[in-house]
Amino acid sequence: MRRQSLRAIAAAVVLTIPWVATWIATEGFPRIGYAVPGTFSGLSTVAIVVVSGISVLGAAFLLAWAAETAEKDVPRAFAIAVLAVLAVAPEYAVDALYAWNAGIYAGTARGIEAGNLAVANMTGANRILIGIGWAGIALFTIFRRGSDSDPSVERRTGFLADVVTIDRDIGLDIVFLLLATCWAFLIPLNGGIDVLDMLFLVGLYVAYIAIILRGDVDPAEEHVGVPAYLQTFAKPNRIATVVLLFAYSGLLIFTAVEPFAHGLEEIGQDIGIPSFFMIQWIAPLASESPELIVVLYLVNKARSTAGFNALISSKLNQWTLLIGTLVVVHSLALGQYGVLAFDERQAAEIWLTAAQSFFAITILLNFEISAREGVVLLLLFVSQVLSEFLLIRDILVLPLSSHELLLVYSGIYVLLGGILLVSRRRAFRRLLGRTQGTIRDAVLPSRSGVPNDDD
What is the pLDDT of residues 232-241, one digit of tens each? Predict the structure, then answer.
């Protein structure tokens, strides 16, 4: 096991070396459209996309191994939360850049455009995470080779009736995600992201982390491959190894994904895809790639529960931290407090994103997602993006504008979610009761010092 594990780690590191060399040679990662000094001067856009993309792949494996290894010493939910934050760090960086520019160029056309792009990039990333992430991973889990041996997959009679069962411990995440989603519906009413949004959403995530940190460590989970080998280390060495893997993979993902995304943007623009469309969809798709790679890796190891936990955790931190911190970045660039404003089109984008999130949450109320539900999520997402693209390109003619199309899809998501919420109201009540118990178990020991009955 030792030799195979070391070979796997070495292979992942080798994938990252070309990008590390590029980054060091240029004293920072190269930006598409600028000359790259030093050894890698003259690299084409395609070459930079390939080098940075391969590095992201290697870093994603290192990140997944670190998270699995960490489960021996910290609550699994916390390890997955750290993984989720690091995996989507590039999305934070890209969105922060637009929010910063909105503050620097406040009051100008460029500043207004930057604010709109910050919202567009954020909403695109969130909808990709559900429309492609949740739906695609559910379908992959059910239909992949060897899925019959996955304990999370249940075969049922009926058309696309097979389901992936979700760990019931993820109920806390679902409830917090629902709270963030409900708040998101209110954000456009103020015409921008303000300090109240920041206080509520960031406070919600801080409360979530505080609760899961008090969870029990479960070292009994059996791991194989690299995590199993790393968990044999003495505790100080194991912790140091996990921290090193988290730091190294996080740095690589943070530095490599932006040029990867920008490279894809430039390639897309060269073939005639509108710039705004690229920023909303192609850049977020690239920045979400580490997360999707990690989840595919976990699912392929028949650890579908951990994979879905990572996806839900990523959605939660993007739907709270990402939105909440944009106004902070914007205000720092502005030199004073300022609301990150956006136009009515971006307001519709936020409503659509919140509506999709609401529908996806209602699917998980019974802690499972069927192949049929995965297909519906995927088709709704793809049809909306494709219709919007065809409208922008004047290929599709509809009796409504692009803005109105977003509102129509928002209504569809809310209607479907409402139907599921009513039909699964008992499951929803049980979920709330379970979450109340989780919070009580986390809070009471700190107040009374008396262990719970379950301890």
Answer: 888 888 889 9
Tokens of 339: 């609301």
Going by C-beta distance under 8 Å and a sequence separation of 6 or more, which residues neighbour residue 129?
288, 291, 311, 314, 315, 318
**219 Cβ contact list (under 8 Å, min separation 6):** 71, 72, 73
- What CATH number should be reported for the domain holding residue 44? 1.20.1420.30
Q: Return d(Cα 71, Cα 74) in angstroms, integer.
A: 5
> Whole domain around residue 140: which residue ranges?
2-444
Does residue 31 fall inside a structural domain?
yes
Tokens linked to 4: 């195979």
Q: b or e along 380-403 (b: 16 or more beta carbons within 10 Å of the residue's beta carbon)?
A: bbeebbebbbebeeeeeeeeeeee
Interval 356-410: pLDDT, tens: 999 999 999 999 999 999 999 999 999 999 998 888 777 877 888 888 999 999 9
Distances in whole angstroms, Cα of residue 396 to Cα of each of 272, 346, 399, 401: 16, 22, 10, 11
Instruction: Give dist(CA 164, CA 282) in Å, integer.
Output: 28
Q: State the virtual CA torsion across 229, 235, 238, 243 in degrees, nearest 10.
A: 150
- Phi first, then psi, for residue 199 (nearest 5°) are -65, -45
